């Protein structure tokens, strides 16, 4: 009888042990989906071997994740898009070789990087801040490969124009800052905003799950089925930062930043790769031809069935194309030396 009682206790303990994480997951999913999203990012950083670190320079702190050490291949610095963060690159990092030295930094004012009211969030201002980060961690002891997506692409292009000796090659993914030939769905939204003196909601700054779904549809050609609770979690994560995002957004569409990349194209001599989704509804793919016209010899990879969110929609292909380009340019340099 005592043995039977012990077996029953064992089953009760086992059931309780299994129930705790299940209940915790269920509660997080229903009540605190934003917590679940943060745990998800933490889990994938850990799984992919990325460590979160901080770099201080003159009272300004950068937050970044990194993996590996400088080696035979150039280090890779990744700059994310507007209102995103360093974990945006997790999907791409997953498909990059583990021996590569990879760094994903939170852009100025975003996520864990310092945010100040006096900071300059123009494209040129952000490029100067990223240079501070590069110098703080001494990344430019050896030329590195720079990658930027959308806003990060515009910043990367200006960086290459201003600090050409820092980098050996560069990849721009659907970069903003180009006077593209055709209007996009986002351009139409922008015109509506201007006509209404910016009293309408900004498509890239959602405040409800429905607006989040609309933003995902705008940015992605691939249709992702995302549960309502996860959409709510994505909104909850962003809501505390929306006032800041509005400030940056107004700076990005200002005269000073709107076409910053195009205005610096004549100063870019770094080997360049362009990756663009053919179905981009935010920044028209015609921008690739404009860049190619200004920088002959740059490599252009246009992706089928892909929108603006290339990193999310085609992570494996993106990683493959970036790696191919780095290796090709490195081999060309060796042959010419």
From TrEMBL:
Residues that span the membrane, as ranges: 12-37
Question: What InterPro entries does UniProt report for this protein, alphabetically?
Answer: AB_hydrolase_1 (IPR000073), AB_hydrolase_fold (IPR029058), AB_hydrolase_sf (IPR050266)
Give a Gene Ontology cellular component term annotated to this protein: AMPA glutamate receptor complex
The residues covered by the AB hydrolase-1 domain are 74-315
Membrane as a keyword of this entry, yes or no, is yes
A single GO BP: acylglycerol catabolic process
The yes or no answer to whether the keyword Transmembrane helix is present is yes
Instruction: Give any Pfam family that matches.
Output: Abhydrolase_1
Q: Which GO terms describe its molecular function?
A: monoacylglycerol lipase activity
Keywords (alphabetical) are: Membrane, Transmembrane, Transmembrane helix
Of which family is this protein a member?
Belongs to the AB hydrolase superfamily.
Protein known as: Monoacylglycerol lipase ABHD6-like
Gene for this protein?
LOC115552559
């Amino acid at each position: 009888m005592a043995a039977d009682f012990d077996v029953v206790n064992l089953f009760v303990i086992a059931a309780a042990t299994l129930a705790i994480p299940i209940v915790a997951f269920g509660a997080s999913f229903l009540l605190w989906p934003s917590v679940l999203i943060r745990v998800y990012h933490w889990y994938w950083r850990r799984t992919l071997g990325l460590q979160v670190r901080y770099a201080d320079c003159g009272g300004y702190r950068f937050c970044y994740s990194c993996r590996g050490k400088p080696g035979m291949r150039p280090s890779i610095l990744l700059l994310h898009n507007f209102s995103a963060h360093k974990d945006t690159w997790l999907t791409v990092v997953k498909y990059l070789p583990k021996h590569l030295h990879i760094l994903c930094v939170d852009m100025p004012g975003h996520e864990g990087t310092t945010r100040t009211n006096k900071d300059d969030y123009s494209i040129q201002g952000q490029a100067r801040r990223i240079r501070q980060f590069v110098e703080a961690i001494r990344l430019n002891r050896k030329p590195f490969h720079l990658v930027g997506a959308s806003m990060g692409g515009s910043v990367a292009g200006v960086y290459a124009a201003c600090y050409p000796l820092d980098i050996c090659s560069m990849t721009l993914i659907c970069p903003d800052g180009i006077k593209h030939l055709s209007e996009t769905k986002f351009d139409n939204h922008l015109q509506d905003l201007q006509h209404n003196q910016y009293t309408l909601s900004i498509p890239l700054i959602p405040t409800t799950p429905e607006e989040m779904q609309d933003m995902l549809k705008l940015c992605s050609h691939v249709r992702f089925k995302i549960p309502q609770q996860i959409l709510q979690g994505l909104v909850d994560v962003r809501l505390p930062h929306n006032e800041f995002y509005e400030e940056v957004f107004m700076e990005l569409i200002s005269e000073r930043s709107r076409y910053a990349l195009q205005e610096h194209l004549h100063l870019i001599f770094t080997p360049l790769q362009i990756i663009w989704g053919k179905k981009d509804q935010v920044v028209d793919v015609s921008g690739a031809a404009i860049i190619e016209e200004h920088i002959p010899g740059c490599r252009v990879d246009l992706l089928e069935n892909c929108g603006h969110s290339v990193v999310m929609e085609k992570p494996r292909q993106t990683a493959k194309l970036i790696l191919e380009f780095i290796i090709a340019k490195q081999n060309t340099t060796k042959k010419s030396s």
